């Protein structure tokens, strides 16, 4: 997707002047962000820049100290995370939250049921609920490339496969926006391309907000990149703008930002 195409898309998620204080420490000093629908929007920055804190604010995992968050036309600033999940936000699970003794398919089924707890009981038993649940699980299995492993206990998957299952767990909630926090961490080189293709493919049906330290991946798959430093937005733009931005280069103190293309 070109920058022009991305910038013409409607804004799905907007943060306005979001702050987060821990006592006297300012973790976020007033962050503005606009995430457009059906794009991959990456948030990068040096360690401690405030990326994870911003994710916590956007997904409702922690409360803001100030500012406003609007998702899909609704002011969600004061809504708890489970309400935001129902509005269509999903955050990728961590490997530690997979049910390691259960087959991949069962992990996804439980995640699909988690969307609407009130419906969870009939998701598998009532004919319509069961069908839609089974459809979701089958689609997600294909999407994350684990269809062949549907019956394999999650604990027997490789690390790369487990990380794709985490993404699948979030997808099972059929979200509008999916938040991925370092989905490639700890991955071997062989698994990186699979994850990259997976994330890139998600924007057909979802909006992706991504924290990622692998600059090669960020530069290759992002429509928009927001660079954070010391709890504020340092720069924002398409990959070529960010790659060439002197402020960003000096924030990273070197060539990490080039994604191998400098
Ligand atoms: N619960 C907390 N109490 C106090 N300070 C915190 C708390 N959580 C985060 N911080 C601080 O807020 C700052 C931003 O942290 P955050 O985890 O958001 O950074 P990050 O950009 O995600 O870093 P990394 O890339 O290392 O994960 C850091 O200085 C961190 O020490």
UniProtKB/TrEMBL annotation:
<keyword id="KW-1003">Cell membrane</keyword>
<dbReference type="InterPro" id="IPR032823">
    <property type="entry name" value="BCA_ABC_TP_C"/>
</dbReference>
<dbReference type="GO" id="GO:0005524">
    <property type="term" value="F:ATP binding"/>
</dbReference>
<dbReference type="GO" id="GO:0016887">
    <property type="term" value="F:ATP hydrolysis activity"/>
</dbReference>
<dbReference type="Pfam" id="PF00005">
    <property type="entry name" value="ABC_tran"/>
</dbReference>
<dbReference type="InterPro" id="IPR003593">
    <property type="entry name" value="AAA+_ATPase"/>
</dbReference>
<protein>
    <submittedName>
        <fullName>ABC transporter ATP-binding protein</fullName>
    </submittedName>
</protein>
<dbReference type="InterPro" id="IPR003439">
    <property type="entry name" value="ABC_transporter-like_ATP-bd"/>
</dbReference>
<dbReference type="InterPro" id="IPR027417">
    <property type="entry name" value="P-loop_NTPase"/>
</dbReference>
<feature type="domain" description="ABC transporter">
    <location>
        <begin position="13"/>
        <end position="255"/>
    </location>
</feature>
<keyword id="KW-0813">Transport</keyword>
<keyword id="KW-0547">Nucleotide-binding</keyword>
<keyword id="KW-0067">ATP-binding</keyword>
<dbReference type="GO" id="GO:0005886">
    <property type="term" value="C:plasma membrane"/>
</dbReference>
<dbReference type="InterPro" id="IPR051120">
    <property type="entry name" value="ABC_AA/LPS_Transport"/>
</dbReference>
<dbReference type="InterPro" id="IPR017871">
    <property type="entry name" value="ABC_transporter-like_CS"/>
</dbReference>
<dbReference type="Pfam" id="PF12399">
    <property type="entry name" value="BCA_ABC_TP_C"/>
</dbReference>
<keyword id="KW-0472">Membrane</keyword>
């Amino acid at each position: 997707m070109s920058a022009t195409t991305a910038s013409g898309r409607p804004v799905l998620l907007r943060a306005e002047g979001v702050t987060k204080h821990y006592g006297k420490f300012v973790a976020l000093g007033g962050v503005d962000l606009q995430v457009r629908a059906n794009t991959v929007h990456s948030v990068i920055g040096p360690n401690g820049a405030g990326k994870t804190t911003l994710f916590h604010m956007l997904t409702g995992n922690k409360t803001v100290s100030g500012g406003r968050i609007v998702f899909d036309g609704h002011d969600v600033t004061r809504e708890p995370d489970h309400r935001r999940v129902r509005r269509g936000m999903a955050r990728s699970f961590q490997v530690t939250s997979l049910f390691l003794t259960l087959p991949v398919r069962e992990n996804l089924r439980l995640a699909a049921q988690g969307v609407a707890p009130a419906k969870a009981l009939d998701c598998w038993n009532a004919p319509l609920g069961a069908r839609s649940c089974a459809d979701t699980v089958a689609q997600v299995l294909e999407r994350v490339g684990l269809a062949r492993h549907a019956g394999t206990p999650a604990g027997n998957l490789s690390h790369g496969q487990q990380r794709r299952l985490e993404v699948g767990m979030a997808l099972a909630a059929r979200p509008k926006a999916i938040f991925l926090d370092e989905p490639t961490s700890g991955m071997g080189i062989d698994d990186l391309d699979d994850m990259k293709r997976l994330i890139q493919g998600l924007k057909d049906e979802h909006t992706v907000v991504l924290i990622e330290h692998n600059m090669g991946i960020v530069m290759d798959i992002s429509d928009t990149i927001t660079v954070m430093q010391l709890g504020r937005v340092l720069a924002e733009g398409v990959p070529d703008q960010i790659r060439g931005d002197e402020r960003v280069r000096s924030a990273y103190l070197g060539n990490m930002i080039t994604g191998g293309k400098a």
